[in-house]
Automatic annotation (TrEMBL):
Gene3D superfamilies, per the entry: Nucleoside Triphosphate Pyrophosphohydrolase (3.90.79.10)
Subunit and partners: Monomer.
Name the record gives this protein: Phosphatase NudJ
Domain of life per record: Bacteria
UniProt cross-references to PROSITE patterns, sorted A to Z: NUDIX (PS51462)
CDD domains xrefs: NUDIX_Hydrolase (cd03675)
C-alpha cells in the first residue's frame, strides 16, 4: 500500500520597503478582511525577480513612490490564521531600506490600497491594533536601531532572472 506524498510546506515570500524621509515613514492603508490596516509597502515576490527588484516594484505599485533598495534590514517570518477562512499562513519577509524617489500621484495604487500615509515612529508605535502584521513594528525598530546588511547578502542565481 502506498501513501500519498505529504504536502510540502511553502511559506509565502514577501518583500517590504522601510521608506523614511525626514523622520517620517511611508506606510499604506489597505482594506483587509479585518478592516483597514497599516503596512509597509509590501507584497509577494514575483517569478523572475530578485527580492530587491520585487521590493522596488511593490513600493511603486502600493505607494506610487519610486524606491531604490540599498540595504537589507532583515529577514522575518510570521504566521497567522486569516479570519475570513481560517487559513493558516506563514510569511517570510525580506525588508529593505533605501532611497525614496519621486512621487507619481497620477499612478493608481494597487487594488485594496486606500492611501499612502507618512507617519512618525511614535505614531506607528501608538496604533499596533491597526498594523496588518507584527512585522511592521519589528522592521521599523530594527531600522531605527541601525540594522543594515549589504544587498550582496542575498544571492540570486542568474537562473532566477534569466540573466
Amino acid at each position: 500500500m502506498t501513501h500519498p506524498a505529504p504536502l510540502r510546506w511553502k511559506p509565502n515570500v514577501t518583500v517590504a520597503a522601510v521608506m523614511e524621509r525626514e523622520g517620517r515613514f511611508l506606510l499604506v492603508e489597505e482594506e483587509t478582511s479585518d478592516g483597514l490596516r497599516l503596512n509597509n509597502p509590501a507584497g509577494h515576490l514575483d517569478p523572475g525577480e530578485t527580492p530587491a527588484q520585487g521590493c522596488a516594484r511593490e513600493a511603486m505599485e502600493e505607494s506610487a513612490h519610486e524606491f531604490t533598495p540599498t540595504a537589507l534590514v532583515g529577514v522575518y517570518i510570521s504566521r497567522f490564521t486569516r479570519s475570513r477562512d481560517q487559513e493558516d499562513i506563514t510569511y517570510l519577509r525580506f525588508a529593505f531600506s533605501g532611497e525614496v524617489g519621486a512621487h507619481h500621484p497620477e499612478l493608481p495604487l494597487d487594488e485594496g490600497i486606500v492611501r499612502a500615509v507618512w507617519m512618525t515612529a511614535d505614531e506607528i508605535r501608538a496604533c499596533p491594533e491597526r498594523h496588518r502584521s507584527p512585522l511592521l513594528l519589528r522592521c521599523l525598530e530594527d531600522y531605527l536601531a541601525g540594522q543594515r546588511f549589504p544587498l550582496s547578502s542575498i544571492y540570486s542565481d542568474p537562473s532566477v532572472t534569466g540573466a
